[in-house]
Amino acid sequence: MAKKIKLRGCPLCGAKANWAKGDKSTRMLDMVQCSECCLTLEADYKPQSALEAWNARVMDMYIEDREVNIEGKNL
Fold this sequence. Notes:
The protein has one helix spanning 49-55, and strands spanning 4-7, 17-20, 31-34, 40-42, 66-69, 73-74. It has a three-stranded antiparallel beta sheet with strand order 1-5-6. A three-stranded antiparallel beta sheet has the order 2-3-4, covered by helices on one side. It has one domain. The protein is mainly β. A hairpin with a 5-residue loop joins strand 3 and strand 4.
């Protein structure tokens, strides 16, 4: 069974977000994007780098969290 990690909701509007796993061989940056307001956070090629930055925040009110598979699939 694949390991899961929590993907927190958007820090601006509180909606669900989607994560795209970074991969240096395909030159795809690790990225998280809100499904409603399209706020996007890109990091480097290291998998989970954008996800970790997205999840770091000061206040948690009105945020909808979800889980993602660490292989880069949204659940």
